[in-house]
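This part of the workshop introduces the protein records we will be handling. The question running through the whole workshop is how a given chain folds. To make this concrete, we reproduce a full record directly below:
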Amino acid sequence: MANQSHQFWIEAPYTGRLREVPVPEPGPDQVLIRSEFSGISAGTETLVYRGEIPPAVAALMAAPQQLGELPYPVSHGYLNVGTVEEGPEELLGRRVFTLSGHRSHLVVPTADCHLLDEQMPSSRALLGGIAEVGLNATWESEVSLGDRVAVIGAGLVGLVTGLLLQKLSPARLELVELDPVRRRRAADLGLKAVTPEEASGDNDAVLHTSATAGGLNRALELTGDDGVVVEMSWYGTAEPQIALGADFHARRLRLASTQVGEVAAPKRLRRSRRQRLATALELLDERFDALITGSSPLVELPRVMDDFARRADWTNNEILHIVTYDH
């Protein structure tokens, strides 16, 4: 086993560096994991990279296995699949998913490891942390069989959420997206993709993922009387202007926030966070493989993360970009 480990750290706004450190040693009830892949959750991670974390929620928004503290210096991220090199005998040599970031070696609590089925591709398993977000929002929305549902935004979170909602056989499910390339990708996945102008109204629930004021306002417009908008976006330090002075009050609409730090309220007494993540991993099927759109080695991550944060042209149609590790 190598003696040195490499970690991606954000040291200041728009400043990412790789650090070389000794391979960490696990303590009691911990495991040492050699990373195979990690995934870039671009929405959240670029907010961190740009330094757009409100100080009041920095502690609340910490990634489960991050090193350092927000805003910086911090080694963030929460999509990682690797092989256990030290730990309990039943985990040795087995692949696990953890809510960890971009580091070639990880030390995490044994209880935070999710053992992967032998048939699960490692790249697909990276989506477990995103599927957990979608599952939590679905629970929050209380969508059920036969409902009319819209998802706004066909990025990573929106596509994963749409694929999960398909399993509920809603009466109508539309993915609402401005970008024609993203609409085509959604359609290729078997989702009905429409423009904001084409989107049907009178929805029982609208799940909003676009992180834009325009998207959230359209979500309110598309929601039927007494329906719910589930806000899945994190705006960081931005302050979107929302039209609550229109018919929001008269139509008794509900606006619910969902964030994976806690299990959605309707399930909080029935499911633990560990159970929720295990369920999310089980829900991943071969349809999700199409969401893996690119890869880069860890050594290139400082440039790649900067490109995502600055919205370089090549990143526009990336869904899940994965980081590879050369051991």
The domain at 133-266 is CATH 3.40.50.720 (Rossmann fold).
